[in-house]
Amino acid sequence: MRELVKIRASQMNGCLFCIDMHVHEALEIGETQDRVFQLTAWRESKLYSEAERAALAYAEAATELPSGVSDETWNAVTAAFKPEEVAHLVGQVAMINAWNRIAAPTHSEPPERG
């Protein structure tokens, strides 16, 4: 789930470097291609759990500032995760957004792969 929220926020921010890195990392740790392929349409997909949906909704809302995270989205996150997991999710989303704002404007490019 950690990589999925990083990929989704990076997609929203148009950060090719981070999309590439986190897709490859997700696949390396066992994420399925189908779940990665369907990530941009996760609301329509049947491949994500309720907890993953809550995390993805939070990642999108936190990335779309200044609109922010609604009470409904926040309540879904706090219902789906333990407090320490919520803290990790908030940190992961904040960090990927920061990295996107470094990598995209500096024209960072993913490595060439054979």
UniProtKB/TrEMBL annotation:
Residues 2-61 form the Carboxymuconolactone decarboxylase-like domain. InterPro entries: AhpD-like, AhpD_core, CMD-like. It comes from the Bacteria. One of its GO terms (molecular function) is peroxiredoxin activity. PANTHER family: 4-CARBOXYMUCONOLACTONE DECARBOXYLASE FAMILY PROTEIN (AFU_ORTHOLOGUE AFUA_6G11590), CARBOXYMUCONOLACTONE DECARBOXYLASE-LIKE DOMAIN-CONTAINING PROTEIN. This is Alkyl hydroperoxide reductase AhpD. It comes from Actinoallomurus iriomotensis. The lineage of its organism: Bacteria, Bacillati, Actinomycetota, Actinomycetes, Streptosporangiales.
